[in-house]
């Protein structure tokens, strides 16, 4: 075929869709893999992701986490960050946008749990937030203090949202509509984490991990 000169070669000419599931997991379709040599790595990381999500689900249930206690009551915490040195939050404040926060009861330390190399539960939540909220990303207390956000700001944030010792807090700075949509997506993903592995269609990342598509 190549001798005809009519065959298109190069990246993107072949796309492979993969269906992957594990016991007690969910059928996940990874669409549009272009570099077929990555196939074993993509499968390996998806299996790891699902197995770790199952562990997280079991642990969350064991400590009494429930979908019902994860509220879509988002609080305006802009005043907490009026003087912040975080460039992303500073930009939102200076544009008179809002910093909204959601409390995730009993999720402390779970958002930083690794699902695959350099890919965490918080990464999954950020993917959802970017997709549905059109935001650049999210912040959460499991990764703080960092990015110019101080321990004092985090303590004030936790007081403002009345977060308990075992709760995580997710926050985002953007237009009110985008911030709310982003946090709704985070809440939905948190509720799914208690149930186990959500059935999704995902897209491959260059490092072999994958991201939410629908």
Give a topology summary.
Blueprint: E1 16-20, E2 28-33, H1 39-62, E3 75-76, H2 87-94, E4 98-104, E5 114-116, E6 119-120, H3 121-133, E7 139-140, H4 151-160, E8 168-174, H5 176-195, E9 201-204, E10 210-212
Parallel strand pairs: 2-9
Antiparallel strand pairs: 1-2, 3-4, 4-8, 5-6, 7-8, 9-10
Would you mind describing this structure in some detail?
By secondary structure, the chain is an alpha+beta fold. The protein has two domains: 2-62, no CATH class; 67-196, GAD-like domain (Gyrase A, domain 2), CATH 3.30.1360.30. The chain is 35% helix and 19% strand. The strands form three sheets. A four-stranded mixed β-sheet has the order 1-2-9-10. A hairpin with a 2-residue loop joins strand 5 (114-116) and strand 6 (119-120). The longest helix has 24 residues, at 39-62. The radius of gyration is 19 Å and the shape is globular.
């Amino acid at each position: 075929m190549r001798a005809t000169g009519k065959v298109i070669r190069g990246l993107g000419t072949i796309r492979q869709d993969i269906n992957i599931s594990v016991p007690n997991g969910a059928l996940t379709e990874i669409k549009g893999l272009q570099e077929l040599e990555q196939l074993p790595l993509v499968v390996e990381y998806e299996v790891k992701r699902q197995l770790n999500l199952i562990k997280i689900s079991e642990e969350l249930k064991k400590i009494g986490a429930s979908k019902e206690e994860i509220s879509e009551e988002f609080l305006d915490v802009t005043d907490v960050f009026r003087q912040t040195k975080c460039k992303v939050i500073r930009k939102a404040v200076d544009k008179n946008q809002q910093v909204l926060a959601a409390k995730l009861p009993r999720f402390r330390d779970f958002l930083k749990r690794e699902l695959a190399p350099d890919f965490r539960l918080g990464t999954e939540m950020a993917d959802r937030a970017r997709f549905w909220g059109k935001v650049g990303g999210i912040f959460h207390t499991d990764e703080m203090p960092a990015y110019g956000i101080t321990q004092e700001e985090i303590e004030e944030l936790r007081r403002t949202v009345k977060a308990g010792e075992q709760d995580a807090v997710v926050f985002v700075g953007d237009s009110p509509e985008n911030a709310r949509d982003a946090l709704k997506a985070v809440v939905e993903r948190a509720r799914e984490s208690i149930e186990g592995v959500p059935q999704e269609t995902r897209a491959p990342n260059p490092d072999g991990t994958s991201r939410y598509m629908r």
